[in-house]
Amino acid sequence: MSADYSRSSVIRVRLFASYAERLGSEELELPSAGLETAGQVLDRLRAMPRGDALGGATLLAVNLRQAGRETPVEPGDEVAVMPPLAGG
Questions:
Q1: 32 lies in which domain range?
Q2: Is 60 part of any domain?
Q3: Domains of the chain: total
Q4: Could you tell me if residue 18 is inside a domain?
Q5: Distance (Å, whole) CA 25 – CA 17
Q6: Under a CB-based contact definition with an 8 Å cutoff, are residues 82 and 16 in contact?
Q7: In whole angstroms, what is the distance from residue 73 CA to residue 40 CA?
Q8: What's the confidence (pLDDT) of residue 28?
Q9: Is residue 31 one of the residues assigned to a domain?
Q10: What's the CATH code of the domain at 77?
Q11: Is the confidence at residue 21, as pLDDT, over 70?
Q12: Strand order in the sheet with 65-67
């Protein structure tokens, strides 16, 4: 299998802050099969051990652009998953 094939058949996920701590990694690669939206990526992460830490106010970005659950994803995309921001 070539490197180009493997890169194009996955969705790269970047986890931030407490989400990275809970899931034990700052980066994951998910097989792209069956993943058509950012929300489906989030659902897949929530199904992982300790994935219940990803709450309802989770922030998403696809390829460095703010995204909603319905934002389309394609093989080779990067999805960032961040806990809600707090501040004043």
A1: 3-82
A2: yes
A3: 1
A4: yes
A5: 10
A6: yes
A7: 9
A8: 97
A9: yes
A10: 3.10.20.30
A11: yes
A12: 27-31, 10-15, 78-82, 59-62, 65-67
**Do the domain assignments include residue 39?**
yes
Q: Would you say 23 and 50 are in contact if contact means Cβ atoms under 8 Å apart?
A: yes
50's tokens: 């300790």
24, 56, 61, 74, 84 from 65: Cα distances, Å: 24, 19, 5, 14, 16
CA-based diameter of the chain, in Å?
A: 49
> What tens digit of pLDDT does each residue of 51-74 get?
998 988 999 999 999 999 999 999
Q: Is 2 helix (H, G, I), strand (E, B) or coil?
A: coil
Q: Is-above-0.85 flag for pTM?
A: yes
| pLDDT over threshold 90, residue 87 | no
55: tokens are 């709450």
Q: What's the pLDDT score for residue 47?
A: 96
As to burial, measured by CB atoms within 10 angstroms (0-12 exposed, 13-18 middle, 19+ buried), residue 19 is: buried
